[in-house]
Write a structure and sequence with these properties.
This protein is α+β, with helices and mostly antiparallel strands. 70% of the residues lie in helices and 9% in strands. The protein has a five-stranded mixed beta sheet with strand order 1-2-3-5-4.
């Protein structure tokens, strides 16, 4: 309920509480002011004042009932019906003595729906009040001529018809207000349920990110183990082999040749170790966003390999969640590493596209390509490979697509949801 509705309800409550007092007071003042127009007997004076006193006592009793028992005083009940009937009887008797007490009788128009249970009984209550008011309007009770009776009948019909029409409209408005209240309650309940669902989704999202990080740590451990086994361990094995040859060499030239080979292998292994550490923790993202980090990574890769490498960004750039940025950067690093090892490409293009609710990373090269359906099983000399990149993408609800053909290059596309930075 709005503040305006509460204010209107409060004013109606004040009218129902104090209205009968005011109408009784107006009737008394008008009756006294017009007493010279009527020839009252002593009995009528005494009866009139006695009825006014009874009306005042009745109102005080009902006022107390409304304050102490709001359930009785503000909803239709037997007690309310009894109060209405007694008040109508007093008002009818006062109007019989003096027509100006019809103002007090009109109080029955205000609260029949509040006091009397049942629509039919409420209409009878309005009709009874209309009879009293119409009698006063027709010249006062009792009626003494046929003209008065005709006028009285017309006034009863007019008063009761008007009041019943107003009561019907009020009933319809009350029903609409009740329906609006129920609708608002349902909307509030739905909004509460929606907010709870959003909170649960946010908590689930956070939980999924935590699980993704934990899975990423395990994945990085497996990747690092594979890197050590496939590159660094093999390099160290090669160094040992070269040093063994040097130890058994009989001439200085042979020894120097194998020492140079051992030194080359050591530098290569050191480079592999550094690359593995960088892939474990993407340092490139510490100070830059994903677009800048990819740009630097592609440029450095091109300088190191001597291959022409280009980087492009399309769409409106967004600040991505750290997990999304790290995943795409690692996929790009792995794809470039595979291109350097196997593709023998002369040109590589990397494109980062922001498309609505998705982010797409495309890596293309013009290398020798391969048959995606005939990939050999991973061997001791193989790298982390497509399976690892696909696992990275799928871990954050993404996909990895590969298009390649022997002699026609390779196109790799990773599509992941666009999750903005928190």
């Amino acid at each position: 309920m709005t503040a305006r509705d509460r204010q209107i309800e409060r004013r109606w409550e004040q009218l129902h509480t104090w209205g009968p007092y005011g109408l009784l007071g107006i009737s008394v003042v008008l009756a006294l002011a017009s007493s010279g127009l009527f020839d009252y007997s002593s009995a009528q004076w005494y009866a009139g004042w006695a009825l006014v006193g009874a009306a005042l006592v009745l109102q005080l009793w009902w006022h107390t009932t409304r304050v102490r028992r709001p359930d009785r005083g503000r909803t239709p009940s037997r007690t309310g019906t009894a109060y209405y009937v007694v008040r109508w009887g007093i008002a009818f008797a006062l109007t019989w003595i003096d027509p100006f007490f019809a103002f007090y009788a009109a109080s029955g128009y205000m609260d029949a729906d509040e006091l009397i249970p049942g629509v039919v009984r409420q209409r009878l209550g309005l009709l009874a009040s209309a009879v009293t008011v119409a009698g006063a309007q027709a010249g006062g009770l009792p009626l003494r001529s046929a003209l008065q009776w005709i006028l009285f009948a017309a006034l009863v019909a007019a008063n009761s018809g008007l009041q019943m029409a107003v009561a019907h409209l009020q009933e319809q408005e009350s029903r609409r207000s009740h329906e609006r209240g129920e609708t608002i309650t349902e909307l509030e309940r739905a909004n509460t349920a929606l907010q709870q669902a959003l909170d649960e989704n946010a908590a689930l999202h956070a939980q999924l990110l935590v699980q993704a990080r934990e899975a990423g740590v395990a994945d990085e451990r497996r990747r690092l183990a594979a890197e050590i086994h496939d590159t660094i361990a093999q390099g160290l094995t090669g160094i040992i082999a070269q040093l063994q040859v040097v130890a058994n060499a009989t001439d200085l030239t042979t020894a120097r040749t194998h020492l140079d080979r051992a030194s080359t292998l050591a530098r290569h292994s050191l480079g592999e170790a550094r690359r593995s550490v960088q892939n474990l923790a993407p340092v490139a993202l510490e100070n830059d966003g994903l677009p800048e980090a990819l740009k630097n990574t592609v440029a450095e890769w091109g300088e190191r390999t001597g291959v022409r490498a280009e980087f492009t960004v399309t769409g409106i750039t967004e600040q991505l969640h750290d997990e999304v940025s790290a995943t795409l950067l690692r996929i790009a690093q792995e794809a470039l590493s595979n291109a350097a090892r196997h593709a023998r490409a002369t040109r590589v293009g990397v494109t980062l596209s922001f498309l609505g609710e998705d982010v797409i990373l495309d890596i293309r090269d013009d290398g020798r390509g391969f048959d995606p359906l005939a990939l050999p099983e991973r061997t001791r000399t193989g790298g982390f490979g497509l399976d690892g990149m696909r696992a990275r993408a799928e871990r954050i609800a993404g996909t990895l697509a590969v298009e390649s053909e022997p002699g026609h290059g390779t196109a790799l596309s990773a599509r992941v949801p666009l999750v903005r930075h928190e």
